[in-house]
Amino acid sequence: MPSAVWGMLFAIMKISMKYRNRASLRQAILFLSLAGIFLLASGALSQQQAPPLLVMISVDGMRPDYITEADAHGAKVPNLRRFLNEGTYAEGVVGTLPTVTYPAHTTLVTGVWPAKHGIFANTTFDPLQQNFQGWYWYTEDIRVPTLWDVAARAGRGTASIQWPVTVGAHMNWNIPEFWRAGTPDDAKLLRAVSTPGLLEEAKPDLGEYTGGIDTSGKADESRGRFTQWILEKKHPGLLTLHLTSLDHIEHETGPFSPESIAILEGIDTTIGKIRETAERVAPGRAYIAVVSDHGFVRTDYQLNLFPAFREANLITTDGKGKITDWKAMPWVTGGSAAIVLKDPSDAAIASQVRELLAKLANNPANGIDRTLEAEDLLKRGGYPPASFFVSLKAGWRTGATLEGPVLSKTLKLGGTHGALPDLPELRAAFFLVGPGVPAGKSLGIIDMRDVAPTLAHEIGLSLPSADGKILLP
Ligand SMILES: [Zn+2]
């Protein structure tokens, strides 16, 4: 029984003792009863009108077939498998160009491709290597409205844990993904860029937040506990969470390795706990979306464009491994490389690069799948600053050292992503449960731009700036 009703009964008892006169007593009881009915009614109303809760959990690098074909891969993921029977899901999500974490996560919250939202890769283009390996960490680089923006505008509380490109985001409770040197000082940096006081407030209950560059299974467990804590204590209307350990282990050991399956099983437990908490704090109005940013391929070979560009005098070095000047520069990201010209209008350099790439692509051993020119690249929503794009086949990854061979066999088993989203292995995942979401329904193959407007629609918001469509009634 609500405490207001207990208070009301107590008040009636007190008043009946005070008022000996029966008429006054009757009046007082009538007044208090009416007040009680009003209180109960307004309580029921506020219950009814409480806005929905959306929790979007991104499992970095999770291919949908980890779940849709869990038995074939020997993965024990009961919580994620529940989404297949109880919710709506995609067989695959065709993602961003390139298929990497930061552009994809930004498409997941904006519904537009990278050329429009402004996050073109994980790392910023830094030809002279002056930015200390800086990533696209900062929200101010996002050029279009996000799910957090429209939720906040509708008066919903917004929260996020470890989501990429959220440093400086306007949210009620935010712990961004951010690191620098990987030393203990990073914890101070993270406190400085998180919502003031949030990590300190949670510390007595949860201990130190394990964030930043830590991509262990333990760190994801910690992120899960912080998520449950924020759901219970802060009651946001929208919460986004990014789990990073699966991607890390897939880079190390390849997709579907025993190590990757073990990490995913831990993530499954974390997701089960978060779902239970969300449905407890928002009964009958909780939506849980489990998404990913890209799939994964196993790699056996490495194609390193830097030595080829150096030999062609497109990159100049000082002999100590430092780049001193450049005419054309690969901007590499796992399974692909964008090529940026210092002067994009220099036709002679453009044709030199075009010939070099054609020569490399002619040798099938190099694993070049396709080379795109600027016009096609932009049409597909990727890399506005680049003049060319080189996408590798499944099995190859790009190298990033100035020295060494152009082509090599990778020494240890591993995996990557980043090539064109056309590769089926690079498709991302989408699973959704919630009130009114059709159960056991497959959407087939969907476009990543559809995710944000669909989720907004499910919780009664709209994201008109998105280019994707709403997939559910
Ligand atoms: Zn990723």
Task: Provide structural commentary.
The protein is of the alpha/beta class and 473 residues long. The protein folds into two domains: 52-296 and 422-458, 3-Layer(aba) Sandwich (Alkaline Phosphatase, subunit A), CATH 3.40.720; 298-416, Gyrase A, domain 2. Helices cover 39% and strands 19% of the residues. It contains 16 helices and 19 strands. It has helices spanning 3-18, 22-49, 65-68, 78-86, 101-110, 114-117, 147-153, 185-193, 198-206, 217-234, 245-253, 258-281, 305-311, 347-362, 374-379, 451-458, and strands at residues 53-59, 88-89, 92-94, 158-161, 173-175, 238-243, 286-291, 297-303, 315-317, 323-326, 328-333, 336-341, 368-373, 388-392, 396-398, 407-416, 430-433, 441-442, 445-447. The strands form five sheets. An eight-stranded mixed sheet has the order 5-4-6-1-7-17-2-18, sandwiched between helices. It is globular, with a radius of gyration of 26 Å. The structure holds zinc ion. Zinc ion binds next to loops.
Features:
eight-stranded mixed β-sheet; four-stranded antiparallel β-sheet; Gyrase A, domain 2; 19 strands; 473 residues; Alkaline Phosphatase, subunit A; alpha/beta; binds zinc ion
The CATH superfamily of the largest domain appears as Alkaline Phosphatase, subunit A
- Count of spatially separate domains: 2
Estimate the global geometry from the Cα principal axes.
Answer: globular
| CATH architecture call of the largest domain | 3-Layer(aba) Sandwich
- Poorly predicted regions are 1-20, 39-47
Q: In whole angstroms, how far apart are the ends?
A: 36 Å
**Strand arrangement, major sheet:** 5-4-6-1-7-17-2-18
Roughly what fraction of the amino acids lie in strands?
Answer: 15-25%
Largest sheet: 8 strands, mixed
Bin the helical content. Answer: 25-40%
